[in-house]
Amino acid sequence: MSEPLPQVPEPLLAGYLDAALATLRAADQTDLPGPLRQYQTWTPRRLRNPRVLGVVRRTLDLDESFRKAVDERVLEEEEALARLVRAGRHAEALASGETPEAVARVGIALGQEGQAAVQAAVEAAATSQARAEAAAVRSALAGAEGELDTARQRAETEAGAARVAREELRAGREELRRVERERRALAERMEGLERQLAESAAALRAAREEAADERRRLRGRASELQARLAESQRNERALRRSAGQVDPAVTEAVGALERDLAVLRRVTGLGEEGGSGRSPEAGAARRPERRPLAVPGGRGADDPETLAAWMGADGVLVLVDGYNVTKHPQGFPERGLEDQRTLLLDLCRRLARRFGAEVTVVFDGGTVGPIPTRLPLGPVEVVFTDPGRTADDEIVVRANAAPPERPVVVVTSDNELRSRVGALGATVVRSPALLGLASAR
After folding, report:
1. Interatomic CA distance for residues 386 and 367, integer angstroms
2. Which of 311, 292, 296, 317 shows the shortest CA–CA distance to 423?
3. What does the H/E/C string look like for 61-89?
4. Residue-wise over 256-274: b if at least 16 C-beta within 10 A, else e?
5. Distance of alpha carbon 141 from alpha carbon 208, whole angstroms
6. What is the tens place of the pLDDT at every residue in 240-268?
7. CA–CA separation, 343 vs 99, rounded Å?
8. For residue range 375-392, what is the model confidence (pLDDT) as tens digits?
9. Which of 20, 339, 408, 433: disulfide with 307, CB 3.0–4.6 Å?
10. Model-wide pTM > 0.85
């Protein structure tokens, strides 16, 4: 085992470790100690990793042949300095300009013979560091003196600024007196504005009284509408008792009257107590309510499989917003209207037979010429609206006219229509759900 490396400051040992790294890179791999072979191809920068340097230092302490190779490299590179150290002239070498690091490197390579040189290098490095620190202190002291001079100059400047500030203070007092005069003038102006404000408040009270009168007028109008609604509801019930069903046009008229009254209540802020007759909500509460079909577990409301489940419900009526489906991007928007209708009706006929559902497809009739009164489509009914009546209105009337106990499914992506039929308790599904059943088995 070789002699351990001497305990010296890291900067003095760096030169010797550099020689060790150079020896590692230059040696044959078979001549290297086992722990160092994996590092031979590493770049000098990577070899300076602290972990690698630790392995090199342990190898220098344990492997005598590697230590000897490093010593020989150092002594060969520093031949002249080595002669001086061997002759005990290390102090002369340091005095002539050799660095403590170089002297320490040669001293470590000489082993016992260079111990005095290593100690002298350590002391020289310490002396050099002390001198550097003293120079730094002197520099700091000079800086402090400069800062002191700067502080004196700043103090003189600030004293001059204080004199200027006193002058400005006197000017400020004069300005304050001027502002006080303006304040009194503004106070007088404010009194005038307060008088105007009082007059405006009186005008506002008058306007509120006028608004209250208008509110009372609207209450009377609401009472009138409620009376008309009650009469319409009585007529509707009488028609139901006499004919077993209500004319869809009458039902839609009653719904329109209810919506008008609801809008009037929202505008005027009237509550139930404002009416003289029965409210539309109270009348609706006494009528059976249609309930939307439940969405099957694990599926969405617009899933084609959900629509398939709903079309299989007992007695279901499926109302299809014709052109809303055909003109959807997933439908047939690039085809002519006649082709659109043909493709949709063919799909609805197949689905109606498959699920046993009653399907009604409603088209706006304003753009269609004369058509047969009956189309041979089996379980599918086709409706073309009269001019001036939209498919949306026809679907709302048919949904409202269906018995409350009968489930109604409306296929449309029109948000306004979805809202209208949803308020009637219908089950609503978007157009792509129906189109998605085209390829489903």
Report:
1. 10
2. 292
3. HHCHHHHHHHHHHHHHHCHHHHHHHHCCC
4. ebbeebeebbeebebeeeb
5. 82
6. 555 444 555 555 666 666 656 665 665 55
7. 98
8. 556 789 999 999 889 999
9. 433
10. no
